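Write out the bound-state structure for guanosine-5'-triphosphate.
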Amino acid sequence: MLTVALAGKPNAGKSTFYTAATMADVDVANYPFTTIDANRGVTHVRTECPCLDRDERCGNENCRDGTRYVPIELLDVAGLVPGAHEGKGLGNQFLDELTNADAVLNVVDASGATNAEGDPVEVGSHDPLDDVDFIEEEMDLWLAGIVDGNWEGVERKSRAPDFDLEAALSEMLTGFGATEGDVAAVLRGLEYPDDPKAWTDDDREALARAVRRRTKPIVVVANKVDAAPAGAVDRIREGTDKPVIPATADGELALRRAAEAGVVDYDPGDESFEIVGDVSDDQRAGLDALRGSMDEHGGTGVQTALNAAVYDLLDRITAYPVQDAGKWTDGTGNVLPDAFLLPAGSTPPDLAYAVHSDIGEGYLHAVDARASRRIGEDHELTEGDVIKIVSTAGP
Ligand SMILES: Nc1nc2c(ncn2[C@@H]2O[C@H](COP(=O)(O)OP(=O)(O)OP(=O)(O)O)[C@@H](O)[C@H]2O)c(=O)[nH]1
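---
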């Protein structure tokens, strides 16, 4: 499963975001909710379910009236402070948790009401742009430390006659989520000596920064937008080249709780909500204020941030394997039972391997269920494709 990690300084709102995003919505997620451990849970990206193109909605537990929620893993990394890569505030330990992340949501306090250590200060007195930069810097220097620590091993390998720098670096960085392709692409963009012994600290740092940028892309979540001074989000956008998503994690949590209690009609990622139950005057005032913020920013931003990480930064598409190309079902009649988030450009054999390595190895051909026609193994899948895979290993 894809893993997205929440990182940020203390008090930025990571735990609130995490709690909201991993909350099992009774309406949407009527299935066993998996908490992997205290800070690792399941959340979803939101997309259109292919069943919208059929007469009836599919009724899948992850489909809400044609809105499909596709599971991903969410990791809540405890607050990082400047100097974390040197171990400040247990930072090394926390940074190590990012090893498995495919993308990072850098949660910043857009209201500027907490300083670099996360202590409360007057609203607007801390520049959120500092927080955007420091998380990236800590991640880069953390990886640089790992590269430094492993360099002797690379030097040792370089004595072998068949030494291959690209292969040695790929081996070192594979645990960090870098493929050989990533390492090759990064090396193409760098200037460096052929002999690892001639590499300087700067060479290693440049490698670490480039690998980090490629393998842990960052979305900036401008949180607490409900309490932020006017123009705060624009200022953050002007100061960074990363996508910036205005958000109110608090607001999302309130809405999910209210939806669970049956007092509002809200699905994660909706741009607004409706009050459908009894609420006190105080609650109504709070919800009205939240509605104002959502109207301004197109929702609470929690779902938008998750979707931005997966569909924009990681460039994924959703593909739906089925066994019956006519009914779009699996062997037991479930309609559109599974959804896979594949890299854009994936082909039917890639989907087969994602389903199971045996299915991939026994791949024979595929059928585009929507068009009812066979597709070649080089055919590029697109968002929402429903595909029947025929495999010697298949049922
Ligand atoms: N106004 C406002 N406050 C928020 C929002 N999200 C979180 N907060 C508040 O910010 C404070 C810190 O939130 P947490 O979620 O505990 O922050 P954290 O980043 O997990 O902090 P650490 O666990 O210390 O790393 C809490 O009082 C939250 O209620 C928001 O969208 N708007």
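---
The pocket of guanosine-5'-triphosphate is lined by residues 8, 10-16, 78-79, 118, 223-224, 226-227, 248-251 (CB under 6 Å).
The first strand starts at residue 3 and ends at 7.
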